Amino acid sequence: MDFELSARQKQIRMAAREFAEGMFPQFAEECDLQEKFPMELWKKACELGFIGVFIKKEYGGLELGCFENGLIAEEFWRIDAGCGNIILSTLGSEFILLYGSEDQKKKYLPLLTKGQAIMGMAITEPDAGSDVSSIRTSAEKRGDHYVIHGNKMYITNGNIAHFLVVFCLTNETEPSRSNGIVLSS
User: Fold this and answer.
1) What is the pTM of this model?
2) Are residues 20 and 83 in contact, defined by beta-carbon separation less than 8 angstroms?
3) Which of these, 89, 101, 103, 148, is most buried using a 10 Å CB contact count?
């Protein structure tokens, strides 16, 4: 097995490093002191294709993999972990990409790569922590939508997200807890 980076992966890593070295110092101190998300930096990263690289081309991504996304994250965090978290502006999109309907993919994913939306993920609950198999928040189907009952906390990107993936039970009697969770928009 070959554990060397491909030429393309090396280019991605170098481009991410150069972007972070050149841009992050302009934003890092202000973002730390004011505890704010660097919107301008995030938009530039979207323009350059660093955000959502694992998203398929048909939805605006580069259709690379999670490994390449990890390479970018490492280079970003190498310079500044706070600014580097712009890479998390697509957190939860993996679930839409893997399990969402075609309509959901077309509606949400292109917004992320174009810098038009940030998403987040709501998993953690007061009595379950982040253990997905222990969540108690439920979603009741009513017509063509769901009504959610329960509590979430520590919602990743909650204060800046335009939309969220929310983990809820849709069938509390299902013996397999993972079969009682559905993705809905």
Assistant:
1) 0.87
2) yes
3) 89
